[in-house]
């Protein structure tokens, strides 16, 4: 039986452009970068495209028209289609215009509509419009979790028959132990001592870092002295309160470290590898990539029991009520002290990470393209 023909896939890579993002990849950027790397192994010839000033682009070629011009054309001339010399165009970041080829859109969550109180009020309307626009113009929609389906139907009006679930993943390289000498070097450069409590994510209300900080500060003094709380993430929308709490704890001499920016994926991987416990108390996630990264790094995980997170952890983490500071703190203390529980969580996490790799994400994504073209 002959192998399926290679597909020409246009992939939006705006969120991976260093000249546009400052070198900081958010969750959508990580997703787009992973597909760019892995789709060729799944039988796809990937042609990256980015919106933005041509001089700022180094990953994707410029789109035929700017987003503003293409959007105006869509509104004034709805029958027009932008020509793309590809079999399928995959929009990963909500920037969609009408094209003369099938369009697949990944809608990661419905946060601006489901929880407007957590979003930047100046950008909320624009994000709502962009997401609804993407849902309307796409021929097929990819959701990153089963949880997301109901929200896509309710918030965006997507026909459930046009939705496929393709989970996010982790780089397979993370499943190999990071070199101990490199990890130690990174930790020294950042002022970290191995065994800390770690959390990763943009600082914003839904990440629930305020309750995590409160839970950590409620731990016995000897535990806090032994284990730092390390927060990795840039400040996001409505983050002032949490940032102020973090800085106040630091000024009081608490063992809290905030890393607002890491310089490379290797550095991030080393920070995961040095952790003793990973804590992810998020109130809302379309998926939750940091959980899988922690699994891949062999770190025991405490995770929220809300939204999509239990679907991602699949029993491999210690689940907690993210609204309960005492539950978060009790789980942190238990994993810090119970070596047998730690080993069980580490083993279960490794198994789960093997099921959720970016290579598998790319394989399932390519299957969506092929089904759409039948």
TrEMBL record:
A Gene Ontology biological process term: lipopolysaccharide biosynthetic process
Top-level division of the source organism's lineage: Bacteria
Gene3D superfamilies linked: Glycogen Phosphorylase B (3.40.50.2000)
Record keyword Transferase present: yes
CDD domains: GT4_MtfB-like
Keywords: Transferase
Record protein name field: Glycosyl transferase family 1
């Amino acid at each position: 039986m002959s192998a399926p023909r290679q597909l020409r896939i246009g992939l939006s890579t705006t969120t991976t452009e260093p000249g546009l993002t400052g070198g900081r990849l958010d969750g959508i950027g990580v997703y787009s970068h992973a597909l760019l790397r892995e789709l060729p192994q799944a039988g796809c010839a990937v042609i990256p495209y980015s919106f933005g000033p041509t001089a700022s682009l180094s990953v994707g070629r410029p789109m035929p028209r700017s987003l503003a011009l293409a959007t105006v054309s869509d509104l004034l001339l709805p029958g027009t289609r932008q020509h793309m010399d590809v079999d399928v165009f995959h929009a990963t970041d909500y920037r969609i215009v009408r094209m003369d080829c099938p369009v697949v859109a990944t809608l990661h969550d419905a946060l601006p509509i489901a929880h407007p109180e957590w979003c930047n009020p100046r950008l909320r309307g624009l994000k709502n419009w962009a997401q609804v626009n993407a849902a309307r113009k796409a021929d097929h929609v990819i959701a990153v979790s089963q949880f997301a389906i109901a929200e896509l139907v309710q918030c965006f009006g997507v026909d459930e028959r046009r939705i496929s679930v393709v989970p996010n993943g982790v780089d397979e390289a993370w499943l190999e132990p990071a070199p101990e000498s490199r990890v130690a070097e990174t930790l020294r450069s950042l002022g970290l001592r191995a065994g800390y409590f770690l959390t990763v994510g943009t600082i914003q209300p839904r990440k629930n870092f305020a309750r995590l900080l409160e839970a950590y500060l409620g731990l016995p003094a000897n535990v806090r002295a032994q284990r730092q709380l390390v927060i990795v993430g840039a400040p996001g929308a409505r983050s002032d309160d949490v940032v102020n709490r973090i800085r106040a704890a630091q000024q009081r001499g608490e063992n809290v470290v905030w890393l607002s920016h890491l310089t490379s994926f290797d550095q991030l991987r080393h920070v995961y590898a040095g952790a003793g416990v990973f804590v992810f108390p998020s109130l809302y996630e379309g998926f939750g990539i940091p959980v899988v990264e922690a699994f891949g790094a062999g770190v025991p995980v405490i995770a929220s029991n809300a939204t999509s997170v239990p679907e991602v952890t699949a029993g491999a983490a210690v689940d907690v009520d993210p609204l309960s500071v005492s539950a978060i703190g009790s789980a942190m203390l238990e994993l810090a002290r119970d070596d047998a529980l730690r080993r069980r969580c580490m083993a279960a996490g490794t198994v789960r990470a093997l099921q959720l790799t970016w290579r598998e994400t790319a394989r399932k994504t390519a299957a969506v393209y092929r089904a759409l073209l039948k």
